[in-house]
Amino acid sequence: MATRVIPRKILKGPRYNTSTKPLNTVHPSLTPAIAPPALFEKPPKVPAEAVLAMDDGERLFTSVSTGRLLRSAAMLHATAVGPMVDMGMWVMRSPLFQSGLWRDLVTYTTRETFFSHFCAGEDAVTASKSIMALNDAGLRGMLVYGVEDAHDNEGCDRNLNGFLETVTVSKSLPPASASFIVVKITAICPMALLERVSDLLRWQQKDPSFVLPWKQDSLPIFAETSPLYHTQKRPEPLTPEEESDLQLANQRLLQLCQTCEEVNMPLLVDAEHTTVQPAIDYLTYAAAIKHNKGSNPIVFGTLQTYLKDAKDRLLLTTKAAEKMGVPMGFKLVRGAYMSTESKLAESFGNASPIHNTIQDTHNCFNDCASFMLEKVANGPDSVVLATHNIESGKLAVAKAHELGVGKVKNKLEFAQLYGMAEALSYGLSNAGFQVSKYMTFGPVEMVMPYLLRRAEENRGLLAASGFDRQLMRKELVRRLKAAVF
């Protein structure tokens, strides 16, 4: 796809003066504390359900206006209807979107429906207002500049300027209201080069004697359980031009890291499909070695726990980083490319790299979350638990309480997509945890791939949003009765 970049003039957001909601440092749990007495002593045995108050719609949505609640309930109901989602996806992909009046109509309709619900705005001004509204409600925002795949250096340079401007915008927001800047390395390194580098890294994993002269210090990116079927034969070495392009891509990432470090704003690198993920991990970890110092990780990687090798890779990477004295930050997610990954593996005659059952994925996410919470409690590492699963939220709350992990800036953050899992977000925030919303912004045409992914890859998630829909409906009825009587 062609790359787009938000013009400089619309990336300049207003300055606000407000503060984030205070967060508590002690969280009741399902289990007794096992942390040292100096950290925590005999916490009350309160069920995690009571802490999150997930059945109290009035409390959960107290900071949400009735208008916004109505719109959210309507959108969640609409996206739970399969045929409606199919029609919306067809319209957004259709040739009608490419020309004249029909294009304008489709853009307008998309902007007023899917876009307005799942995106923070078309420019930094509206995105800033969206973050301020979240800030007033006790939540934070991850700024996600909505550009994706790039295919040449010119596009990569334009995209880098957009990311750098996003960091500048973050400085104008209320203190601590923006938690992370999010970057897709596919936007600052040509896709074809990421595929080539991934192939070479996989082949070196198969044959350790295979020399990569351009390779810099990094951390383990494969485990013994990692799939290597993508690379069927020995790849040709990078050409001098490709090596030069790789150096340019690395320089773009390091420039972005340096800018984030200067304003003390963590940079979160998003994960992609396994075809290019090895190269992304390689570049991310190399940047982390350079910029993660002391107890303040600046560079965060993303681990998709629906992959069978996720836990093994997490253990290897954190062990190597600890040996090097590098504090690590990770965002844990379940994953967003399930159908793509399964089809690709099948085309090579291999089993899917995705866990065989959804429960296996839940178990992997929860195990990785527990492991990282232990790291947070006992060292300099940090973790973002990006989940819409209420049970995972409850387990993490219990574990954090057990370990005495409270409000430590950027050490523990929960995260959900903007426009989704509202009850869980507010429940975690009310329980005293830092909670962020993943907030994509940019012109409608630019973020269309993101919207299509939300519809396609999260179809089951949207259909399973009944918990939020039920709570919202109950709260709207309560407000109506209160207004009438």
TrEMBL record:
GO cellular component, one term: mitochondrion
GO biological process terms on file: L-proline catabolic process to L-glutamate
Pfam families on file: Pro_dh (PF01619)
Function: Converts proline to delta-1-pyrroline-5-carboxylate.
The protein's required cofactors: FAD
Enzyme type, top EC level: oxidoreductase
Catalyzed reactions per annotation: L-proline + a quinone = (S)-1-pyrroline-5-carboxylate + a quinol + H(+)
Protein name according to UniProt: Proline dehydrogenase
Domain Proline dehydrogenase: 129-460
Keywords, comma-separated and alphabetical: FAD, Flavoprotein, Oxidoreductase, Proline metabolism
Organism: Vigna radiata var. radiata
EC number: 1.5.5.2
Family: Belongs to the proline oxidase family.
Molecular function (Gene Ontology), one example: FAD binding
